[in-house]
Amino acid sequence: IFSVGTYVNIEESIRFVIHSNDVDDYGRNVLLYNFLHLTPYFSERLLHVVKTAIEDNGFKRKEPLLPEALKSLTSDEMIFWEKYTHDFRFRENFLEDAFNRVPDRTAWQNAFDILPKVQDILSYIILIHGKNDNVIPASESLALYKQLIAYNKPAYLCISPVLDHGDVQKNLTAYLDFFKILKAFSIFFRLAGNNQ
């Protein structure tokens, strides 16, 4: 299993995004997309805007589609979007309230939490995480790696400044560190080749 930017505790990962003012637009909007339907602010128009914002960021569109999508919003929806985008306290309170509305939250958390399932893993696990990931902290992959080692599971961990949350950094230190990432890929392809 080759995993990039892994989380181990869904609640801690979500709360990290909720309460961090440094999280990028992509992370904040992914949370909004997943929790908007649980709130009184939900509308299909607003959901479409959030999806467009996520895709503009994720696809690195040279010409973003968000400005056109925003034209579809009502004035109340536009006020919400502006506050969510620019007002940290509003966004923090909104996301915290939305997260607290998740139905059957204990079962939901148990389904997504990784650490309790580590003892059942049979595959070699390769973890890569950006050292400065501002959406899912690198400490999440480190915690998973420590748990894997505690259960004598074969694993490789690479925490690298070459990556942040999905983006490659370009500087001299990053290029020197790139060999750690190459090692992770070489382990993966060697093991994958042996399983054919």
Description of the molecule:
By secondary structure, this protein is mainly α. Strand 2, helix 8 and strand 3 form a beta-alpha-beta unit. It is globular.
List the helices and strands and how they pair.
Layout: E1 2-4, H1 10-19, H2 25-35, H3 44-58, H4 66-70, H5 75-86, H6 88-100, H7 105-112, E2 125-130, H8 138-150, E3 155-160, H9 172-194
Parallel strand pairs: 1-2, 2-3
Helix pairs in contact: 1-6, 2-3, 5-6
The helix count comes to 9
**End-to-end gap:** 15 Å
Encode the helix/strand succession as letters: EHHHHHHHEHEH
Mean pLDDT: 89
Radius of gyration (Å): 19 Å
How would you describe the shape? globular
Strand content: 5-15%
The neighbouring-strand order within the major sheet is 1-2-3
What class, by secondary structure content?
mainly alpha
Give the low-pLDDT segments. 165-169
**Proportion in helices:** 55-70%
Brief characterization of the structure:
The chain is mainly α and 196 residues long. Helix content is 56%, strand content 8%.
List keywords for this structure.
3 strands, 196 residues, single chain, mainly alpha, globular, three-stranded parallel sheet
